[in-house]
Amino acid sequence: MSCPDCERIDLLPAESGTLYLAPVLAHTRAALRSRMVEEQLPCSEPVSGILAMPVDNNGGLGDTLVRLEQALSGSEQSGCRATFVPGDETFNLAHLQDTHLLSTLIARHNARDLAAILANDTLDFHFQPIVHAAEPEEVFAYEALVRARTPAGDVIPPNELFQTARAAELLFHLDRSARINAIRRATERGIGSRLFINFNPTAIYDPAFCLETTVREILSRPDGDGPSGFVFEVIESDYVTDVDHLSRIVDRYRRAGFQVALDDLGAGYASLNMLSQLRPDYVKIDRQLVSGIDRDIYQQKILGKIIELARELEIQTVAEGVETVEEWRWLRDRVDYCQGYLFARPAAEPPMPVHPEV
After folding, report:
1. Taking the model in full, what pTM does it have?
2. Fewest beta carbons within 10 Å, which of 168, 293, 354, 357?
């Protein structure tokens, strides 16, 4: 069971047609008319309150969107719904499914590199080891960290990649592609230990459909530990407003035999609240709390209480962002696992950790 619509990347059409704009507010409508006159953008009003812009073959919809981005403010773009109707077609109910905010269409035009990456399935991954805290030369698991390049070969920073996807309403497509390709790249590179895979809960609509391809990808692996070898890590928990929905996602993973981790514990109230509701198998302690832990007594008390709480709930702890020997020495007898540059940097070929005292 899967959803074919979710696997399709909708690229902006190149043919001629008409871009219909429907400003929500009368003020925005008046501002749009005024701006279009000032910028000499061709426009008509076939129905009261609806503006129509012809799109020709020369520049296509992309050029029209560029001109609108230059002519309108961000709030004006966000206050207007837009639909492109190709050729000589007349707008009808079937076009409603392709209606977006004008700001989303502009963002999608600006996300051409991302759309090409997703359409061609070219996401790559680097891997960073998670080590046993007391014996850091021993790998417990690897975390898959997404990497991407434009078709021209330029690196796209991961945070920029996800920001672009969110603005262009391609977050689901990116998250799905990242989950599947993390599994594929790990298989290709011989990772036999546990694999931590990030997922963004706001990018999943219905767990029964949206996670099915991920589950099938794991079950189709010829070797490895099966579902028990995978840990799905909740990221960007500050964006989560529906914890019940996240609980359904977590339940779907658990029923399939996977484990779950909660990222950035200690970064805000949201993650602490989720701790009791989700009851993850692992928590990853935010690097801001780990940094300089050996020198800050207040930080030590806060982290000590978080570790104590995790122990009482039978949740294993991973300290992220460990960069100094002194931080590790404070952590090694307190947390279960560590991760950070001190042991190994992420790399395309899964690196082996280095003991910090060697």
Report:
1. 0.84
2. 357
